[in-house]
Design brief:
Strand content: 15-25%
Structural class: alpha/beta
Distance between the termini: 36 Å
Number of domains: 4
Oligomer: single chain
Shape: elongated
CATH topology of the largest domain: TIM Barrel
Helix content: 40-55%
CATH class of the largest domain: Alpha Beta
CATH superfamily of the largest domain: Phosphoenolpyruvate-binding domains
Strand order of the largest sheet: 14-24-23-16-17-18-19-15
Largest sheet: 8 strands, mixed
Number of helices: 36
Bound molecules: phosphoenolpyruvate, magnesium ion
Radius of gyration: 34 Å
């Protein structure tokens, strides 16, 4: 098509309403809405976002009709107001204000008093019977126009103003006389001429064109781009431009300008919250030049406008059913609203406002839930850095586990374990390994140079509710010197730093923290979510302590109890190594017999906490070499013993261990002898684990009269035969144990679905499964073919920033790809076994966007770290509400 359809670039304010945000921007749409509601707003028109986009696309050239359309809209405005731009009688003055689709406070530009000139200033003063006001407006215009449209540096005008005030010995702008302001106007013109090498354009229509252009360009300033990136606002939306008749808050002592919120945006309390200034224009309030007065004081000085404002605030809140952030001006006693928008608020305020509005009957519970962002709940669940800290981070990494932590730097897990008992420490590592767990447990927080959102450090830290920043950029760790270098600054062991695991920011000093805020509002709102959600919510928990926390935070069971941590604890490791090194079945049986009671003890602790609720225990998953020393380190040890001719026994056992390490060494352990593959080679392991599970369940029942609903889960199944064989081992062992005890216990046996092959043959696998649990971590890894330990610190972040993919797929599920696999797995599994219970226990189980998908796909429950439970409960309800829409 060669013809382009005519796009409408200009809208009179009476043509719009609140639903037209995409075209008119937030400010323009809400102004139009207020006009529609009969609320006093100055008349005007809006240049649409489409005009801005078209101009940007044409490299700054306006679309053909835009200038004619603007002229026509201006003429209509002149007719409606009975005033003329640049007219020598009844001059029209304009404000030109940006207004994007999503509000970007303070990011873009505004020009006030456009239309004032040597020709109009006297008329304006005479009309208002206030020449001072006219000259005040004139000097303001020259400054704003010079700065915003012509790009003169702001301090140039400010310096002149400050110097004049100093010469006159006055502190406030309002103390300057008319003559002073006239002098300032002359000076400002000189300044502009000096800076630009020419006069400012004198034709007000030309000024208007350039002002609109300046607002278009302000969309693309570096600060606006940074803001958009931080808030996930697309770069291609453009801004609208609102051109409105000026109303003057600086027209004397019965005029004022101010800003107010319908509720307190910090606490959410329903109280008067706002500020105003008599005889001032908008920027005076925000710029801090004069100290504004509390809104309540306006009642005395401008009673009629005040009463009208209070009523309007109420009306607007009822109309939008949300807390409003309002800008107003009073011109000679008459109130005008210049803006209303849903007010930005703290997380605590968001919850309080939502809850109060439900109690006030303004919102339904469903509406209130939709208003709250899951991230806001998350903020309240963890200690946070005091929002008033005003410091800049020294580096940034991935926000791997939320919450803030302050502590002394330590560089290894042993030191962390030692010092962390008596003082707060932050464990800093290139990356953590399972061997660091004891350090992570006592540390306040963890900082790593490598790894991503599902790196070991991140998963473990999240599981324990420890703040973690992973993959921090540009940090150098020298473990020998015990130093951390960031930029040019060297930190030593013992130096205090602060981490913000919710943002990924790292600060080179100790900042004040505020405690988690799980208050009544929080509990009430999560309680409403529970009534609405369909998905079950379980926790991933491996210890009695985690299980207790999970129950406290609303877990309906444990969806994943990983048993490998039970093998890692330092008191277990010797027996585990003995088992691995055993050269005969008897020797292995002997070692396993030592591990069994320890496992049983762990299970008893968990089952005790979870009495009456289901607990899915996953049999051992990681490759055996994880329990053995590092290959290089062990080789070096052997070498050293050989060279020093040390103790013969020591040397021979070191060699034996090295032999085993070599034998078990794999190039790709994550694709190696893991999960049920290990159990296929050593059925004694699942057998031992099953015995420990059954004995623990029976012991808890005997002790408390009730036990947990034990379920056993086989990991990393690819072939139906694997599950068939493992099921047989588990079933036989359960029967054996129950017969010996003379007891009965129902133990469902299910499987993880975490490999693409398992998805494809889910129908065959389902034949042997009582339930499925999707391991979306491994399914992401194997489905996309990326190693989670390597990719997150590597190309994946570039993929996200270059928008090859929308987000880190280990954090939020890859809807089309891995989500598609989950869908196929569900369909095929349920085709073979209708109604088969299906959970998700990968990290995605706690991610709100992924939960939305799981709701759509008909998953039965999600399982996540205990600390993410409230978010998951909440997100599950939101998922129901959004599918209803
Ligand atoms: C998974 O793969 O999603 C899972 C839960 O198992 P793990 O993270 O322990 O491999
Ligand atoms: Mg897995």
């Amino acid at each position: 098509m060669s013809e382009t359809t005519a796009t409408k670039f200009l809208y009179d304010m009476s043509e719009g309403d609140a639903s037209m945000k995409t075209i008119l921007g937030g400010k323009g749409a809400n102004l139009a809405e207020m006009k529609r509601l009969g609320i006093p707003v100055p008349d005007g028109f809006t240049v649409s976002t489409a005009a801005c986009v078209a101009t940007m696309e044409a490299g700054g050239r306006w679309p053909d009709d835009l200038w004619d359309d603007t002229g026509a809209a201006l003429t209509r405005l002149e007719e409606r107001t009975g005033r003329t731009l640049g007219g020598s009688t009844a001059p029209l003055l304009l404000s030109i204000r940006s207004g994007a689709v999503f509000s970007m406070p303070g990011m873009m530009d505004t020009i006030l008093n456009l239309g004032i000139s040597d020709d109009t200033v006297e008329v304006l003063g005479a009309e208002a019977d206030n020449p001072r006001f006219a000259w005040d407006s004139y000097r303001r215009f020259l400054q704003m126009y010079g700065e915003v449209v012509e790009g003169v540096a702001p301090h140039v005008y400010e310096d002149e103003l400050t110097s004049l005030k100093a010469r006159r010995g006055v502190a406030q702008d309002t103390d300057l006389s008319i003559e002073d302001l006239q002098e300032l106007v002359a000076t400002f013109k000189d300044v502009s001429r000096r800076e630009l090498g020419r006069d400012l354009p004198s034709d007000p229509r030309e000024q208007l064109r350039r002002a609109v252009d300046a607002v278009f360009s302000s969309w693309d300033t570096p600060r606006a781009r940074v803001y958009r990136k931080a808030h996930g606002i697309p770069d291609n939306l453009g801004t609208a431009v609102n051109v409105m008749q000026m109303v003057f808050g600086n027209r004397g002592e019965t005029s004022a300008t101010g800003v107010c919120f319908t509720r307190n945006p910090s606490t959410g309390a329903k109280e008067l919250y706002g500020e105003f200034l008599l005889n001032a224009q908008g920027e005076d309030v925000v710029s801090g030049i004069r100290t504004p007065r509390e809104l309540s004081e306006m009642e005395e000085v401008l009673p009629t406008a005040y009463a009208q404002l209070i009523q309007t605030m109420h009306d607007l809140e009822m109309h939008y059913k949300d807390m409003q952030d309002i800008e107003f001006t009073v011109e000679e006693g008459t109130l005008y609203l210049l803006q209303t928008r849903n007010g930005k608020r703290t997380a605590a305020a968001a919850l309080k406002v939502a809850r109060d509005m439900v109690e006030e009957g303004v919102l339904t519970r469903e509406e209130a839930l939709v208003r709250i962002e899951p991230a806001q709940l998350d903020q309240l669940l963890h200690p946070a850095i005091d929002p008033d800290h005003g410091r800049s981070p020294i580096t940034r990494g991935l926000p791997a586990s939320p919450g803030a932590a302050v502590g002394q730097l330590v560089f290894d897990a042993d030191t962390a374990a030692e010092r962390g008992v008596s003082e707060p420490v932050i464990l800093v590592r290139y990356e953590t390994t399972p061997d660091d767990i004891h350090g992570v447990i006592v540390a306040q927080g963890v900082l790593t140079a490598h790894g991503g959102m599902t790196s070991h450090a991140a998963v473990v830290a999240r599981g324990m509710g420890r703040p973690c920043v992973a993959g921090a950029q540009g940090i150098r760790i020298n473990t020998a010197e015990r130093t951390l270098t960031i930029g040019g600054t060297v930190f030593h062991e013992g130096d205090v730093i602060t981490l913000d695991g919710s943002t990924g920011d790292v600060y080179g000093e100790g900042l004040e923290l505020v405690p988690p805020q799980i208050n009544e509002d929080f509990s009430a709102i999560v309680g409403w979510a529970d009534e609405i959600r369909r998905l079950g919510v379980r926790a991933n928990a491996d210890t009695g302590e985690d299980a207790a926390k999970a129950r406290e935070l609303g877990a309906e069971g444990i969806g994943l109890c990983r048993t490998e941590h039970m093998f890692m604890a330092s008191d277990r490791l010797p027996a585990v190594r003995e088992m691995i090194l055993a050269d005969s079945e008897e020797a292995r049986a002997e070692a396993l017999a030592k591990i069994l009671p320890m496992q049983q003890e762990d299970f008893e602790a968990i089952f005790t906490q979870m009495r009456g609720l289901p607990v899915t225990v996953r049999l051992l998953d990681p490759p055996l070499h994880e329990f053995l020393p590092d290959l290089v380190e062990q080789s070096l040890l052997v070498q050293r013993l050989e060279l020093t001719g040390g103790d013969a026994d020591e040397l021979s056992s070191a060699r034996a261990l090295l032999g085993q390490v070599k034998r078990l060494h794999e190039q790709n352990p994550m694709l190696g002898t893991r999960g049920c593959r290990l159990a296929m080679l050593y059925p004694e392991i699942p057998e031992m684990q099953t015995r420990a599970i059954v004995r623990a369940a029976l012991a808890v029942r005997e002790r408390h009269g009730e036990t947990a609903g034990v379920e056993i889960m086989i990991p990393l199944v690819a072939f139906a035969k694997e599950l068939e064989v493992q099921r047989e081992v588990v079933e036989r062992t359960v029967a054996d144990e129950l017969a010996a005890a003379g007891e009965e216990l129902d133990v469902p046996i299910g499987t993880m679905i975490e490999l693409p092959r398992a998805v494809i043959v889910a129908d065959q696998i389902a034949a042997h499964a009582d339930f499925f649990s999707f391991g979306t971590n491994d399914l992401t890894q194997t489905g996309i073919g990326i190693s989670r330990d390597d990719a997150e610190g590597g190309f994946l972040s570039a993929y996200v920033s270059d928008e090859v993919i929308p987000s880190n797929p280990f954090e939020s599920i890859d809807r089309d790809g891995v989500g598609g696999l989950v869908q196929i797995g569900i369909e095929r599994g349920r085709a073979a076994k209708p109604g088969l219970k299906m959970g998700v226990c990968g990290e995605h189980g706690g991610d709100p966007d992924s939960i939305a998908l799981f709701e759509e796909l008909g998953i039965s429950y999600v399982s996540c770290s205990p600390f993410r439970l409230p978010i998951a409960r909440f997100a599950a309800a939101r998922a129901v509400l959004s599918t209803k829409k």
